[in-house]
Amino acid sequence: MADNGGGSPAAAVCDEDLLRRCRSGGDPAAFETLVHRYERELFSYLRRYLGSAEMAEDVFQATFLQVHLKKEHFEDGRRFRPWLYAIATNQAIDAQRRNRRHRMASLDARTGDGDDVGSLVEMLQGGGGTAVQELENEESREWVRSAVEALPETLRGALVLVYHQGLKYREAADVLGVPVGTVKSRLNAALVKLNETWQRSREQRA
Predict the structure, then answer these.
(1) What is the pTM of this model?
(2) Domain that holds residue 114
(3) pLDDT tens for the 206 residues of the chain, in order
């Protein structure tokens, strides 16, 4: 969830109204509130997507610059969060192209205390349980990170947005510019591929 950030009156206002205040120019604190509200969440997403904290910081700044420049084009009735993620994703892709890296996404642990990799391992186990249970925690995390990095970009993007960032299917569809059904199929395909990768690694360990 987004951080409500600060104790200013603007902190209690929804994202969409804050952006409207930015457009009207009547509340200079509104834009700053939006930045602080999404600072940790969006940086965490960009760090995973780009695999670099330094690049993530640059893209974070570029994203909110674009939010400022494009605020007049924000459509009434639209939700701010998926719009923000769409801008951030496009800026991240541009950054990768500029750096000629085309790096695979990194799923290093997010900023903070949480360890979300364990839950993904549980998802991979399914109903019957698998040999993932036999791995030590650190080995499990390393395996999951490596396996997700190897996913095609389209599948990886859906997995990061829906699973790690907690976007709803419709929000992720807005970010990726695809139908909701495509998001669901990509997420399912990502999990299938991860399970297949696990089965192969298990056979190699046998």
Answers:
(1) 0.58
(2) 107-206
(3) 444 444 445 557 899 999 988 887 767 788 889 999 999 999 988 888 887 888 888 899 999 988 988 888 888 888 899 899 999 988 888 887 776 544 333 444 333 333 444 445 455 544 444 444 444 455 666 677 777 777 888 888 888 888 778 888 888 888 888 898 898 888 888 888 887 887 777 677 65
Helices (H), 10-164: 15-24, 29-50, 53-70, 80-99, 117-125, 137-149, 153-159
Domain shared by 118 and 165, yes or no: yes
Number of folded domains that form the chain: 2
Closest by CA position to 173, among listed 81, 69, 49, 74: 81
